[in-house]
Protein backbone atom coordinates (compact mmCIF):
# COMPACT_ATOMS: atom_id res chain seq x y z
CA UNK A 1 0.00 0.00 0.00
CA UNK A 2 1.48 3.36 -1.03
CA UNK A 3 1.40 6.61 0.88
CA UNK A 4 -1.75 8.68 1.09
CA UNK A 5 -1.81 12.41 0.26
CA UNK A 6 -4.67 14.53 1.58
CA UNK A 7 -4.73 17.63 -0.64
CA UNK A 8 -6.38 20.99 -0.03
CA UNK A 9 -8.99 21.47 -2.75
CA UNK A 10 -7.58 24.93 -3.52
CA UNK A 11 -4.55 23.07 -4.90
CA UNK A 12 -6.87 21.36 -7.40
CA UNK A 13 -8.18 24.76 -8.49
CA UNK A 14 -4.66 26.12 -8.84
CA UNK A 15 -3.50 23.19 -10.97
CA UNK A 16 -6.61 23.50 -13.13
CA UNK A 17 -5.85 27.17 -13.82
CA UNK A 18 -2.32 26.23 -14.85
CA UNK A 19 -3.74 23.60 -17.20
CA UNK A 20 -5.87 26.29 -18.86
CA UNK A 21 -2.86 28.58 -19.33
CA UNK A 22 -0.56 25.85 -20.60
CA UNK A 23 2.05 26.87 -23.16
CA UNK A 24 4.52 24.00 -22.87
CA UNK A 25 5.37 21.85 -19.85
CA UNK A 26 4.85 23.53 -16.47
CA UNK A 27 6.72 22.42 -13.37
CA UNK A 28 6.27 23.42 -9.77
CA UNK A 29 6.48 22.50 -6.09
CA UNK A 30 4.07 20.81 -3.71
CA UNK A 31 4.11 22.18 -0.15
CA UNK A 32 2.71 20.70 3.03
CA UNK A 33 3.42 18.54 6.06
CA UNK A 34 4.44 14.89 6.32
CA UNK A 35 3.44 12.55 9.10
CA UNK A 36 4.08 8.86 9.63
CA UNK A 37 0.44 8.03 8.83
CA UNK A 38 -0.24 10.39 5.91
CA UNK A 39 0.85 13.58 4.17
CA UNK A 40 -1.01 16.87 3.81
CA UNK A 41 -0.54 19.04 0.70
CA UNK A 42 -1.75 22.59 1.33
CA UNK A 43 -0.08 24.66 -1.40
CA UNK A 44 1.34 24.39 -4.90
CA UNK A 45 3.43 26.93 -6.76
CA UNK A 46 4.72 26.94 -10.32
CA UNK A 47 8.37 27.38 -11.22
CA UNK A 48 9.05 31.02 -12.23
CA UNK A 49 9.84 31.73 -15.85
CA UNK A 50 13.55 31.55 -16.62
CA UNK A 51 14.13 34.48 -18.96
CA UNK A 52 17.69 33.31 -19.65
CA UNK A 53 16.65 29.85 -20.80
CA UNK A 54 18.09 29.01 -24.23
CA UNK A 55 14.87 27.38 -25.46
CA UNK A 56 12.45 29.84 -23.89
CA UNK A 57 11.38 27.43 -21.16
CA UNK A 58 10.17 24.66 -23.47
CA UNK A 59 12.26 22.06 -21.62
CA UNK A 60 12.60 21.33 -17.91
CA UNK A 61 15.61 23.00 -16.28
CA UNK A 62 16.58 20.87 -13.28
CA UNK A 63 18.92 23.46 -11.76
CA UNK A 64 16.33 26.24 -12.12
CA UNK A 65 13.60 24.15 -10.45
CA UNK A 66 15.99 23.19 -7.63
CA UNK A 67 17.02 26.79 -6.97
CA UNK A 68 13.37 27.81 -6.86
CA UNK A 69 12.79 25.05 -4.29
CA UNK A 70 15.70 26.31 -2.19
CA UNK A 71 14.30 29.84 -2.14
CA UNK A 72 10.78 28.62 -1.33
CA UNK A 73 12.07 26.40 1.46
CA UNK A 74 13.51 29.48 3.16
CA UNK A 75 10.05 31.08 3.11
CA UNK A 76 8.28 28.24 4.91
CA UNK A 77 7.77 28.33 8.70
CA UNK A 78 8.05 25.24 10.85
CA UNK A 79 5.72 22.41 9.91
CA UNK A 80 5.68 23.32 6.21
CA UNK A 81 8.16 21.95 3.71
CA UNK A 82 8.60 21.13 0.05
CA UNK A 83 7.09 17.65 -0.24
CA UNK A 84 7.78 17.12 -3.92
CA UNK A 85 7.27 18.36 -7.46
CA UNK A 86 4.59 18.38 -10.14
CA UNK A 87 4.61 18.61 -13.90
CA UNK A 88 1.76 19.52 -16.23
CA UNK A 89 2.44 18.01 -19.61
CA UNK A 90 0.62 16.38 -22.51
CA UNK A 91 3.27 13.67 -22.55
CA UNK A 92 2.33 10.30 -21.17
CA UNK A 93 2.90 9.93 -17.43
CA UNK A 94 5.40 7.12 -18.06
CA UNK A 95 7.44 9.38 -20.33
CA UNK A 96 7.79 12.05 -17.61
CA UNK A 97 8.74 9.61 -14.85
CA UNK A 98 12.49 9.94 -15.42
CA UNK A 99 12.25 13.74 -15.45
CA UNK A 100 10.22 13.78 -12.23
CA UNK A 101 12.65 11.42 -10.54
CA UNK A 102 15.61 13.62 -11.46
CA UNK A 103 13.75 16.72 -10.27
CA UNK A 104 12.71 15.36 -6.90
CA UNK A 105 16.22 14.09 -6.07
CA UNK A 106 17.86 17.33 -7.23
CA UNK A 107 15.40 19.44 -5.21
CA UNK A 108 15.85 17.43 -2.03
CA UNK A 109 19.65 17.37 -2.31
CA UNK A 110 19.87 21.16 -2.60
CA UNK A 111 17.36 21.86 0.18
CA UNK A 112 18.97 19.36 2.57
CA UNK A 113 22.41 20.89 1.97
CA UNK A 114 21.25 23.98 3.91
CA UNK A 115 19.71 22.10 6.84
CA UNK A 116 21.58 22.27 10.13
CA UNK A 117 19.16 20.29 12.30
CA UNK A 118 19.57 16.57 12.85
CA UNK A 119 17.03 14.33 11.06
CA UNK A 120 14.84 12.21 13.34
CA UNK A 121 14.32 8.47 13.05
CA UNK A 122 10.62 8.95 12.32
CA UNK A 123 11.13 11.55 9.56
CA UNK A 124 9.38 10.61 6.31
CA UNK A 125 11.88 10.13 3.48
CA UNK A 126 9.35 9.67 0.66
CA UNK A 127 8.93 12.60 -1.73
CA UNK A 128 5.93 12.94 -4.00
CA UNK A 129 5.76 13.50 -7.76
CA UNK A 130 2.57 14.40 -9.60
CA UNK A 131 1.88 14.31 -13.34
CA UNK A 132 -1.17 16.20 -14.61
CA UNK A 133 -2.51 15.88 -18.15
CA UNK A 134 -3.81 19.35 -19.13
CA UNK A 135 -6.46 17.97 -21.49
CA UNK A 136 -7.95 15.11 -19.48
CA UNK A 137 -6.91 16.56 -16.06
CA UNK A 138 -5.90 13.03 -15.09
CA UNK A 139 -3.34 12.91 -12.27
CA UNK A 140 -0.74 10.23 -11.62
CA UNK A 141 0.88 10.32 -8.18
CA UNK A 142 4.06 8.45 -7.29
CA UNK A 143 6.67 8.63 -4.55
CA UNK A 144 10.43 8.09 -4.34
CA UNK A 145 12.51 7.37 -1.25
CA UNK A 146 15.08 10.14 -1.55
CA UNK A 147 17.43 8.42 0.92
CA UNK A 148 17.77 5.52 -1.52
CA UNK A 149 19.60 6.47 -4.75
CA UNK A 150 18.22 3.32 -6.37
CA UNK A 151 14.65 4.00 -5.32
CA UNK A 152 11.95 3.11 -7.81
CA UNK A 153 8.58 4.83 -8.19
CA UNK A 154 5.78 3.67 -5.91
CA UNK A 155 2.11 4.45 -6.53
CA UNK A 156 0.45 6.81 -4.04
CA UNK A 157 -3.11 7.89 -3.29
CA UNK A 158 -3.98 11.54 -4.11
CA UNK A 159 -7.24 12.79 -2.58
CA UNK A 160 -8.67 16.31 -2.62
CA UNK A 161 -10.46 17.56 0.47
CA UNK A 162 -11.77 20.91 1.68
CA UNK A 163 -10.52 22.56 4.87
CA UNK A 164 -7.47 20.33 5.23
CA UNK A 165 -5.69 22.77 7.54
CA UNK A 166 -8.60 24.90 8.77
CA UNK A 167 -8.12 23.67 12.35
CA UNK A 168 -4.32 23.39 12.42
CA UNK A 169 -2.70 24.85 15.52
CA UNK A 170 0.20 27.31 15.56
CA UNK A 171 2.91 27.12 18.22
CA UNK A 172 5.17 30.17 18.54
CA UNK A 173 7.93 31.61 20.67
CA UNK A 174 10.53 34.37 20.81
CA UNK A 175 14.18 33.56 21.40
CA UNK A 176 17.28 35.64 22.10
CA UNK A 177 20.31 34.80 19.98
CA UNK A 178 23.90 35.62 20.93
CA UNK A 179 26.59 33.90 18.87
CA UNK A 180 30.33 34.54 18.70
CA UNK A 181 32.25 32.90 15.87
CA UNK A 182 36.08 33.09 15.68
CA UNK A 183 37.64 33.62 12.27
CA UNK A 184 41.05 32.12 11.42
CA UNK A 185 44.12 34.18 10.69
CA UNK A 186 45.06 34.78 7.05
CA UNK A 187 41.71 33.45 5.92
CA UNK A 188 40.29 33.37 2.43
CA UNK A 189 37.60 35.85 3.37
CA UNK A 190 34.19 34.75 2.13
CA UNK A 191 34.79 31.00 1.92
CA UNK A 192 36.33 30.64 5.37
CA UNK A 193 33.81 32.94 7.04
CA UNK A 194 31.02 30.89 5.49
CA UNK A 195 32.60 27.65 6.75
CA UNK A 196 33.25 29.03 10.24
CA UNK A 197 29.71 30.34 10.60
CA UNK A 198 28.19 27.08 9.40
CA UNK A 199 30.25 25.03 11.86
CA UNK A 200 29.39 27.31 14.77
CA UNK A 201 25.72 27.31 13.78
CA UNK A 202 25.80 23.51 13.85
CA UNK A 203 27.05 23.60 17.43
CA UNK A 204 24.37 26.15 18.31
CA UNK A 205 21.73 24.00 16.57
CA UNK A 206 22.67 21.11 18.84
CA UNK A 207 22.12 23.35 21.86
CA UNK A 208 18.68 24.24 20.50
CA UNK A 209 17.85 20.56 20.00
CA UNK A 210 18.84 19.80 23.61
CA UNK A 211 16.80 22.73 24.95
CA UNK A 212 13.77 22.23 27.16
CA UNK A 213 10.53 23.25 25.48
CA UNK A 214 7.67 24.53 27.65
CA UNK A 215 4.22 24.58 26.07
CA UNK A 216 1.85 27.05 27.71
CA UNK A 217 4.32 27.16 30.61
CA UNK A 218 4.51 23.40 31.15
CA UNK A 219 6.93 20.63 30.20
CA UNK A 220 4.59 18.07 28.65
CA UNK A 221 5.31 14.37 28.14
CA UNK A 222 6.35 13.62 24.56
CA UNK A 223 3.23 11.59 23.86
CA UNK A 224 0.84 14.15 25.33
CA UNK A 225 -1.81 15.22 22.84
CA UNK A 226 -2.27 18.93 22.26
CA UNK A 227 -5.96 19.63 22.80
CA UNK A 228 -5.76 22.84 20.78
CA UNK A 229 -5.15 20.83 17.63
CA UNK A 230 -8.45 18.95 18.02
CA UNK A 231 -10.89 21.88 17.94
CA UNK A 232 -12.61 21.93 14.58
CA UNK A 233 -12.51 25.10 12.44
CA UNK A 234 -11.03 27.13 15.29
CA UNK A 235 -7.68 28.87 14.95
CA UNK A 236 -5.55 27.88 17.90
CA UNK A 237 -2.32 29.54 19.00
CA UNK A 238 -0.01 27.86 21.50
CA UNK A 239 2.68 29.80 23.33
CA UNK A 240 6.01 28.11 23.91
CA UNK A 241 9.29 28.85 25.63
CA UNK A 242 12.67 27.31 24.94
CA UNK A 243 15.13 27.02 27.82
CA UNK A 244 18.71 26.59 26.66
CA UNK A 245 21.74 25.71 28.78
CA UNK A 246 25.04 26.78 27.15
CA UNK A 247 27.64 24.07 26.75
CA UNK A 248 30.40 23.98 29.35
CA UNK A 249 33.62 25.27 27.81
CA UNK A 250 37.18 24.29 28.58
CA UNK A 251 40.42 26.15 28.01
CA UNK A 252 41.24 23.79 25.14
CA UNK A 253 38.00 24.82 23.45
CA UNK A 254 38.32 28.59 23.69
CA UNK A 255 41.98 29.65 23.80
CA UNK A 256 43.02 30.08 20.20
CA UNK A 257 44.56 32.58 17.84
CA UNK A 258 42.15 34.15 15.42
CA UNK A 259 42.02 36.89 12.84
CA UNK A 260 38.73 38.28 14.06
CA UNK A 261 35.20 37.25 14.92
CA UNK A 262 31.61 37.45 13.82
CA UNK A 263 28.96 38.35 16.37
CA UNK A 264 25.29 37.56 15.69
CA UNK A 265 22.87 38.82 18.34
CA UNK A 266 19.29 39.89 18.80
CA UNK A 267 15.87 38.26 19.08
CA UNK A 268 13.80 36.24 16.64
CA UNK A 269 10.18 35.16 16.31
CA UNK A 270 9.61 31.50 15.50
CA UNK A 271 6.43 29.62 14.65
CA UNK A 272 5.37 26.16 13.53
CA UNK A 273 2.08 24.71 12.32
CA UNK A 274 0.69 21.38 13.53
CA UNK A 275 -1.78 19.15 11.73
CA UNK A 276 -5.07 18.47 13.49
CA UNK A 277 -4.79 14.67 13.58
CA UNK A 278 -4.07 14.36 17.32
CA UNK A 279 -0.72 16.23 17.31
CA UNK A 280 1.68 15.35 20.10
CA UNK A 281 3.92 17.58 22.22
CA UNK A 282 6.95 15.85 20.70
CA UNK A 283 5.95 17.02 17.21
CA UNK A 284 5.35 20.61 18.34
CA UNK A 285 8.78 20.74 19.97
CA UNK A 286 10.55 19.21 16.98
CA UNK A 287 8.98 21.53 14.41
CA UNK A 288 9.49 24.66 16.51
CA UNK A 289 13.16 23.89 17.17
CA UNK A 290 13.75 23.23 13.49
CA UNK A 291 12.16 26.54 12.58
CA UNK A 292 14.40 28.36 15.08
CA UNK A 293 17.53 26.81 13.59
CA UNK A 294 16.40 27.34 10.00
CA UNK A 295 15.39 30.99 10.33
CA UNK A 296 18.69 32.01 11.93
CA UNK A 297 20.76 29.99 9.45
CA UNK A 298 18.79 31.45 6.53
CA UNK A 299 19.42 35.02 7.63
CA UNK A 300 23.12 34.46 8.16
CA UNK A 301 23.36 32.84 4.73
CA UNK A 302 21.46 35.73 3.14
CA UNK A 303 23.90 38.15 4.73
CA UNK A 304 26.85 36.23 3.31
CA UNK A 305 25.24 36.38 -0.12
CA UNK A 306 25.01 40.17 0.03
CA UNK A 307 27.68 41.93 -2.11
CA UNK A 308 29.03 44.04 0.77
CA UNK A 309 29.97 40.97 2.85
CA UNK A 310 31.67 39.35 -0.12
CA UNK A 311 33.97 42.34 -0.72
CA UNK A 312 37.36 41.29 0.60
CA UNK A 313 38.64 44.87 0.30
CA UNK A 314 36.53 45.76 3.34
CA UNK A 315 38.86 43.70 5.47
CA UNK A 316 41.78 45.99 4.81
CA UNK A 317 39.89 49.25 5.23
CA UNK A 318 37.89 48.75 8.40
CA UNK A 319 38.51 47.07 11.68
CA UNK A 320 34.80 46.57 12.38
CA UNK A 321 32.06 45.78 9.87
CA UNK A 322 28.47 46.01 11.09
CA UNK A 323 25.45 44.57 9.29
CA UNK A 324 21.72 44.33 9.93
CA UNK A 325 20.35 40.89 9.33
CA UNK A 326 16.92 40.84 7.68
CA UNK A 327 13.81 40.67 9.84
CA UNK A 328 11.12 38.07 9.36
CA UNK A 329 7.80 39.21 7.92
CA UNK A 330 4.80 36.89 7.65
CA UNK A 331 1.99 36.71 5.13
CA UNK A 332 -1.23 34.76 5.65
CA UNK A 333 -2.14 32.18 3.05
CA UNK A 334 -5.77 33.22 2.66
CA UNK A 335 -7.05 30.01 1.16
CA UNK A 336 -5.66 27.79 3.91
CA UNK A 337 -7.08 29.28 7.10
CA UNK A 338 -4.45 29.72 9.81
CA UNK A 339 -1.32 29.10 7.73
CA UNK A 340 1.24 31.74 6.84
CA UNK A 341 4.48 31.93 4.93
CA UNK A 342 7.35 34.36 5.46
CA UNK A 343 10.02 36.42 3.79
CA UNK A 344 13.02 38.37 5.04
CA UNK A 345 13.25 42.15 4.82
CA UNK A 346 16.56 43.98 4.82
CA UNK A 347 16.57 47.48 6.31
CA UNK A 348 16.78 49.13 2.88
CA UNK A 349 13.80 47.24 1.47
CA UNK A 350 10.15 48.22 1.35
CA UNK A 351 7.10 46.02 1.76
CA UNK A 352 6.35 46.26 -1.96
CA UNK A 353 9.54 44.35 -2.71
CA UNK A 354 8.32 41.58 -0.44
CA UNK A 355 4.92 41.33 -2.13
CA UNK A 356 6.79 41.03 -5.43
CA UNK A 357 8.83 38.13 -4.05
CA UNK A 358 5.72 36.37 -2.72
CA UNK A 359 4.29 36.59 -6.23
CA UNK A 360 7.46 35.41 -7.95
CA UNK A 361 8.35 32.59 -5.56
CA UNK A 362 4.94 31.38 -4.32
CA UNK A 363 2.62 32.78 -7.00
CA UNK A 364 0.68 34.59 -4.24
CA UNK A 365 -1.19 37.84 -4.80
CA UNK A 366 -0.41 39.63 -1.53
CA UNK A 367 -1.01 43.29 -0.73
CA UNK A 368 1.15 45.26 1.68
CA UNK A 369 -1.66 45.28 4.25
CA UNK A 370 -1.61 41.46 4.21
CA UNK A 371 1.92 41.42 5.62
CA UNK A 372 2.59 41.03 9.33
CA UNK A 373 5.75 43.01 10.02
CA UNK A 374 5.10 43.40 13.76
CA UNK A 375 6.72 40.23 15.08
CA UNK A 376 10.30 41.49 14.80
CA UNK A 377 11.89 44.92 14.83
CA UNK A 378 14.16 46.19 12.09
CA UNK A 379 17.77 45.91 13.17
CA UNK A 380 19.55 49.21 13.65
CA UNK A 381 23.30 49.33 14.04
CA UNK A 382 24.46 51.70 16.78
CA UNK A 383 27.79 53.02 15.67
CA UNK A 384 30.61 53.12 18.22
CA UNK A 385 34.01 54.56 17.48
CA UNK A 386 36.75 52.05 18.26
CA UNK A 387 40.32 53.15 17.71
CA UNK A 388 43.16 50.72 17.09
CA UNK A 389 44.74 51.70 20.45
CA UNK A 390 41.53 51.01 22.35
CA UNK A 391 41.05 47.68 20.60
CA UNK A 392 44.67 46.66 21.26
CA UNK A 393 44.31 47.62 24.95
CA UNK A 394 41.09 45.58 25.11
CA UNK A 395 42.98 42.61 23.69
CA UNK A 396 45.74 42.79 26.32
CA UNK A 397 43.22 42.79 29.18
CA UNK A 398 41.42 39.62 28.07
CA UNK A 399 41.04 36.81 30.57
CA UNK A 400 43.06 33.85 29.12
CA UNK A 401 40.28 31.48 30.22
CA UNK A 402 37.70 33.29 28.08
CA UNK A 403 37.38 33.55 24.32
CA UNK A 404 40.02 35.98 23.14
CA UNK A 405 37.49 37.58 20.78
CA UNK A 406 34.68 38.39 23.20
CA UNK A 407 36.17 41.63 24.51
CA UNK A 408 36.67 43.12 21.05
CA UNK A 409 33.21 42.16 19.88
CA UNK A 410 31.72 43.90 22.89
CA UNK A 411 33.19 47.16 21.58
CA UNK A 412 30.61 47.02 18.81
CA UNK A 413 27.05 47.72 19.94
CA UNK A 414 23.97 46.53 18.12
CA UNK A 415 20.30 47.00 18.89
CA UNK A 416 18.55 44.26 20.82
CA UNK A 417 15.11 42.96 19.85
CA UNK A 418 16.44 42.74 16.30
CA UNK A 419 18.95 40.43 14.67
CA UNK A 420 22.24 41.98 13.64
CA UNK A 421 25.82 40.96 12.98
CA UNK A 422 29.21 42.56 13.42
CA UNK A 423 32.56 41.45 12.05
CA UNK A 424 35.73 42.42 13.92
CA UNK A 425 39.19 41.99 12.39
CA UNK A 426 41.94 41.46 14.97
CA UNK A 427 44.71 40.81 12.48
CA UNK A 428 44.65 44.47 11.38
CA UNK A 429 45.38 45.78 14.87
TrEMBL record:
* UniProt keyword annotations, A-Z: Membrane, Transmembrane, Transmembrane helix
Q: Does the keyword Cell division apply?
A: no
Compartment annotation: Membrane
Instruction: Using the UniProt record, give the first listed, main subcellular location.
Output: membrane
List the InterPro entries hit by this protein, alphabetically: ODR-4-like
A biological-process GO annotation: intracellular protein localization
Q: Which GO terms describe its cellular component?
A: endomembrane system; membrane
Q: Pfam families annotated for this entry?
A: ODR4-like
Q: Which residues cross the membrane?
A: 405-426
The residue stretches assigned to a coiled coil in this entry are none
General function of this protein: May play a role in the trafficking of a subset of G-protein coupled receptors.
Q: Which PANTHER family match?
A: PROTEIN ODR-4 HOMOLOG
* Stated family: Belongs to the ODR-4 family.
Q: State what protein this is by name.
A: Protein odr-4 homolog
Q: Which organism is it from?
A: Xiphophorus maculatus
Amino acid sequence: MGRSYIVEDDVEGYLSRLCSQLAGPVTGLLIGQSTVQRDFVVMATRTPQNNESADGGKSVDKEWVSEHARQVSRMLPGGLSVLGVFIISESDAKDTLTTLRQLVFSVENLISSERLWTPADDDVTDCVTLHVNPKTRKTVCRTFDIKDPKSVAKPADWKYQSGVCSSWAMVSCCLSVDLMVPLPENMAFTRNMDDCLKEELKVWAQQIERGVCLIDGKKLPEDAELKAGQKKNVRQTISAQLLITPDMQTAADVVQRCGGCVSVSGAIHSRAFLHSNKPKAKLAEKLLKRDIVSTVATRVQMLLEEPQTQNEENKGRKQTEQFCLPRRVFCAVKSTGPLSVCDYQFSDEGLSEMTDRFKEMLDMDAAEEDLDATQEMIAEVIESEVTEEESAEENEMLDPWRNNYIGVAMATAVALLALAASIVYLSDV
